[in-house]
Every structure is written in C-alpha cells, then in structure tokens.
Design brief:
Blueprint: E1 4-12, H1 17-35, E2 40-48, E3 51-59, H2 66-77, E4 92-98, H3 102-110, E5 118-125, H4 134-152, E6 159-172, E7 175-188, H5 194-212, E8 222-225, H6 235-238, E9 241-242, H7 247-250, H8 271-288, E10 294-301, E11 310-314, H9 323-333, H10 338-345, H11 376-381
Parallel strand pairs: 3-4, 7-8
Antiparallel strand pairs: 1-6, 2-3, 2-9, 5-10, 6-7, 10-11
C-alpha cells in the first residue's frame, strides 16, 4: 500500500520584483552576447522603490546601453505608470560594472575550465508531457495565464504586473492523483472589488488552465485568491527584488535537489547555469528514452578544471539498469566539459531573457536547446 502525500510548488509572474531583476540581468547578458558571443558576464540587479541598480563583472569589447536595456524591460513587464510606485520613465538606473577577475579568466580562457566550483542538479520525471513535476508545471501555467489576461482581457484591466501562484498536488506514492489546493495572488488597482477579482481569476485563470491539462474538472479543490482580501501595493514599491532569489521557481519547484547557484545574468562559462542546463538535458533524455520514470543528475566542478569532478545518477528505484551503469553510459554519451556543453546546447546565443520568467525548464519555445530529447538513440544504443 502506497502512502498519500501532498507536495506544493509556487511560481511568480514577470512583474514580481525578483523576476524584474532576473529579466534585466539576462537582457544585459543577451545584449553582450548579441555583439560578442564570447563576452564574460556576471550581472546582478536590485530593484526597489524608484530605482534599478545593476552591478557585476562584464568583460567585452562590445558597448551595451545598460540603462536603456533596464528601462525597456521594466516597460515590457508593465510598469508604465508612476502611480505604481515604480515605472520605466521615472525610475533611476544606477550601474556599477567592473571587468571579470583575471584570476578567474585565467582558468576559463586559458584552460577552458569551469568558471566556478560547485554542484549542479538536473531532474526529469514522467508526471507531465514535458517531463517536469506537476506542481511547478501547473504553477507556471497559472502565472503565465495571469499575465496573459492582465495584458489582453478587457474586463480585467484592474490587474497589475505583480503576482504569485501556488499549486498543491496530492500524490499516491510517486504518482500525482489530483490538484488539492490552488493559491493565486494578483496585484490589482485600488478600486477593484475582491468579489470581482476572485470570480474573474477563478473563471479566466484557474479553470482554463486546469481544464486544459485535464485536472479536476469536478472542481474538487481548494482555491484561495488574494487571501488577505487586498493586494494593491506590489512590485518594487512594496518589496525589493534581486537577481537569483527565485532559484526554486526557476528549477523544479522544490522537487529533487538544488546546488544553490542562480542562473540569470551569467554567461555560459559559469557552470551554475550551463551545468544545470546540461544536467536537465541528460535527465530528460534518460526519462524520454524509457530508461527510468524519475531521474536526477548531479554534476560537480572545480574552478578552472574542464572535466567534472563527479557525476551522480539517481533514478529513485525506477531505472531499467543500475544507476552506476547508467552513469557510465552518460559519461560516454555526453561531453560535460564547459566547452562541450556550450557547443552542444548552443549557449552563446542571446536567448536568455525568455528564461528569466516562468521557469528555465519544461519550456518548448525556440532557444531552449536543453529541453530537446535528441540523445535518446545514443543512450539506448549503449544499453547492450
């Protein structure tokens, strides 16, 4: 008899302060890579009431207009009115940029090694068509739908850019059975009634998403919309935002492990980013090949060294072969040096702003090369 359990994951909209910061950092990265594919970028952003502060290390011969980039992101997200307490026209944009440390550059450029030490994780499972855990997948779909209706629904013009979603799924063992609870917090104008907000969010955000993915058509779930009854002050006016502060939203919603490194604002020589993308790519191909229903990969690096110091595979008892044997196959099939990862996944392109909201994984848009199941045949060929 398997045990019933509940698991919860959250997502946030592109107007959440931390996600504004992530999008600015990744937009700066894209601007550098568009002109200099080998540029080195480690860019952090802080947003608060009336200010965006961009800092970090950038080494490139290209010129990028960071204040203009930041303002464009803020405008695109939807902060276009000074009454929001933060808008693209009146906010100050402050920069503090240095070059990459020569000590790091020596190991990255000279030895083609990793840009830092650390461990990275990748995860995949059969819970959804994109091989992601169901709670984070649904939380992202709800957050995207909330942003969609804010931008396009004429009857929901009271919505503002900030927002959060949360989904609790009931499992029977390792298999999801139903959605148990949904939480949506949507920023709104002061004149909107809580009754209208709750009705509209239920009908135009929650129900369409759950019905699209064939979840809980009988509506046998608990729904909280703006539980406090009011969410007028939001965005950077209400809460400062910082690059890299939503690493669980960015990955698997708390399922599996996380190495602790953030992604946004980092060029692909930083294995915090490229190593995590490579680990997801491997795990997804393992599951897509039918070699396991669940797969977690850990890769670890030493700064300046090209080869990983360790690779670990954990299929949680669902693998068709032993994890140690699968690890040996993965070592043969995948080049896990930073150069190998960058070349295989084509990571020197300006593709990163789109990753900075609604998750880096489980995405089917163009540019998410680490989501392709393009190594299935190579893995199965080594099964013997």
């Amino acid at each position: 008899m398997t045990a019933r359990r509940l698991f919860t994951s959250e997502s946030v909209t592109e107007g959440h302060p931390d996600k504004i910061a992530d999008q600015i950092s990744d937009s700066v990265l894209d601007a550098v890579l568009a002109k200099d594919p080998h540029g080195k970028v480690a860019c952090e952003t802080l947003v608060a009431t009336g200010v965006a502060f961009v800092a970090g290390q950038i080494t490139t011969d290209a010129y990028v207009d960071i204040p203009s980039i930041a303002r464009q992101v803020i405008k695109d997200v939807g902060y276009t009115d000074a009454t929001f307490g933060f808008d693209y026209q009146t906010c100050a944009v402050i920069t503090s940029i240095d070059e990459q440390s020569p000590d790091i550059r020596m190991g990255v450029v000279g030895k083609h090694g990793a840009g830092d030490q650390g461990m990275m994780f990748g995860y995949a499972c059969t819970e959804t068509p994109v091989l992601m855990p169901l709670p984070i997948f649904l939380a992202h779909q709800l957050a995207r739908k909330l942003a969609e209706v804010r931008k396009g629904a004429k009857h929901m013009t009271y919505l503002r850019p900030d927002g959060k979603t949360q989904v609790t799924v009931e499992y029977d063992g390792d298999k999801p059975k139903r959605v148990h609870t949904v939480v949506v917090s949507a920023q709104h104008s002061a004149d909107a009634s809580i009754e209208d907000i709750r009705r509209d969010v239920r009908e135009h955000v929650v129900k369409p998403v759950l019905e699209k993915y064939d979840m809980n058509r009988d509506e046998n779930y608990v729904l909280f919309v703006n539980p406090t009854g009011r969410f007028v002050e939001g965005g950077p006016k209400a809460d400062s935002g910082l690059t890299g502060r939503k690493i669980i939203v960015d990955t698997y919603g708390g399922v599996g492990s996380h190495g602790g490194g953030a992604f946004s604002g980092k060029d692909p020589s930083k294995v915090d980013r490229s190593g995590s993308y490579a680990a997801r790519h491997i795990a997804k191909n393992v599951v897509a090949a039918g070699l396991a229903r669940i797969c977690e990969i850990q890769i670890a690096y030493a700064i300046g060294e090209p080869e990983p110091v360790s690779i670990m595979v954990d299929t949680r008892g669902t693998g068709k072969i032993e994890d140690l044997k699968l690890t040996e196959i993965i070592r043969k099939v995948f080049d896990l040096t930073p150069d190998g990862i960058i070349d295989r996944l084509k990571l020197r392109r300006p593709i990163y702003r789109q990753t900075a909201a609604y998750g880096h994984f489980g995405r089917e848009e163009d540019g998410f090369s680490w989501e392709k199941c393009d190594h299935v045949d190579k893995l199965t060929q080594h099964m013997g």
